[in-house]
Structure formats: structure tokens, C-alpha cells
Design brief:
By secondary structure, this protein is an alpha/beta fold. The chain has one domain: P-loop containing nucleotide triphosphate hydrolases (Rossmann fold), CATH 3.40.50.300. 37% of the residues lie in helices and 22% in strands. Strands 2-3-1-4-5-6 form a 6-stranded mixed sheet, sandwiched between helices. The protein binds guanosine-5'-triphosphate and magnesium ion. Guanosine-5'-triphosphate is lined by residues 17, 19-25, 38-40, 42-45, 76-77, 140-141, 143-144, 169-171.
């Protein structure tokens, strides 16, 4: 297959966020099966976990429909807490940066219990402004959040990331359909 054609057809969604925020659980919720290992200790995902999701037809033409191959990539937590330097090293760090640079869309997962971390505020801005990446912000673990905490986090994301957000839970599945619809809207752009 022609390389240019292939790269034009692919649509890579890359999931980023701090350790233990639920990135792997979110990937599993999107696919509805266990693809990436989930655990209560940080540092579970090491190398990027990649999974092809499927072909999606978009555009109005029936004769010449446009098709994109969507794949998802679950990354290891780049930073833990407010640490300024990545917790990964060597080849794993290289692979992680490569995936972020190749992303067509980024999902930035915020741990609803911990809130938005400064380290991730920085990486969010870097990806958005320097690398011109479209980003969807997800506040995960929303099953644990009171109404007032939700409002606080929503305002924090609006103020610091200049973005709206989707509340998700991989336990109750709240927000997962909403997230998928948002991803599809980006695909059509
Ligand atoms: N209550 C609640 N717990 C969640 C949710 N999503 C994930 N968790 C829990 O959070 C912990 C971390 O989940 P993972 O999916 O392994 O997190 P991760 O971001 O992939 O972590 P690393 O790979 O270590 O960076 C696990 O104990 C999950 O069960 C959620 O929506 N609600
Ligand atoms: Mg993980």
C-alpha cells in the first residue's frame, strides 16, 4: 500500500495522563474488553499498548466514502504527582514521546480524585501549542466525585487548560459514549 495513502487514512488516538489516573481502564472501557493491564499501583503500563479499533466511514459521498483506520494507544504515566521530570527513562521514554508526536488526537486523562497536575498542565500546553494536537480532556473516576468537586474540577480545567471536559467512570460507564461521540467528531474535521 502507498505509504502516503496509509498515513492519510490512519487516525491515532493517544491516551495520556499521570500514573494511576485510569488510562488503561479507559482503553478497556472503550473496547469493552481487557486489553491493557489495570492495577491499583502506579507504573503498571510501561511500553505503549496499541490496539486497532476499526474502520470508520465518514463524509457525505456514498460513491466515494472516506475511511479512516482508528487505533488507540495507552501510554504509561509520564509523570507521577507533581514531579517535573518524567518517571520513565531510555527507550520507554523515547517510545512514549514518539507516540505523542504521532497522535492525531490526544485524550488527556485527569484523575478526578487528585485534580489537574501542574506537570500535566505543562505537557498539555506543549502538545496543544507547539505540536498543534487536538486534545479531549477527560476527568476520570467521576463515580467518586461529589457534585461540588465536579464543578470545581470543571472550572479548573476551563481556567488552566482553556478547555471543556468530559466526566467518565470506568466503573459506571458514565461518559464513555459521550467520549466516543467526541472522538468521532474530531475524526470528521
Ligand atoms: N473508582 C474508580 N476507579 C477507577 C476508575 N478508573 C480506574 N480506576 C482504578 O484506578 C486504578 C488505576 O487504573 P489504571 O487503569 O491501571 O491506571 P493507569 O492510568 O493506566 O496507570 P499506569 O499504567 O500505572 O500509569 C485501578 O485501581 C483502577 O481500578 C474509575 O472510573 N473509577
Ligand atoms: Mg496503565
Amino acid at each position: 500500500m502507498d505509504k502516503g495513502l496509509y498515513s492519510d487514512n490512519r487516525f491515532k488516538v493517544v491516551i495520556i495522563g499521570p500514573e494511576n489516573s485510569g488510562k488503561s481502564a479507559l482503553l478497556n472501557a472503550i473496547f469493552g474488553k481487557n486489553i491493557s493491564r489495570v492495577s491499583e499501583v502506579g507504573g503498571t503500563t510501561k511500553k505503549p499498548v496499541k490496539k486497532f479499533w476499526g474502520k470508520v466511514k465518514y463524509g457525505k459521498s456514498k460513491k466515494e466514502p472516506k475511511i479512516k483506520n482508528i487505533s488507540f494507544v495507552d501510554l504509561g504515566g509520564l509523570f507521577s504527582g507533581e514531579k517535573e521530570s518524567p518517571i520513565m527513562v531510555g527507550k520507554t521514554l523515547e517510545l512514549t514521546y514518539k507516540e505523542m508526536k504521532e497522535a492525531d488526537l490526544i485524550i488527556h486523562v485527569v484523575d478526578g480524585e487528585k485534580g489537574l497536575l501542574k506537570s500535566f498542565e505543562k505537557i498539555h500546553h506543549l502538545l496543544k501549542y507547539r505540536y498543534q494536537k487536538p486534545i479531549i480532556v477527560v476527568i476520570n473516576k467521576c463515580d467518586l466525585l461529589e457534585y461540588s468537586r465536579r464543578n470545581y474540577l470543571k472550572e479548573q480545567v476551563e481556567k488552566r487548560l482553556n478547555s471543556n471536559c468530559i466526566f467518565t467512570s470506568t466503573i459506571t460507564y458514565e461518559g464513555i459514549t459521550d467520549l466516543m461521540n467526541n472522538i468521532m467528531n474530531f475524526l470528521k474535521k
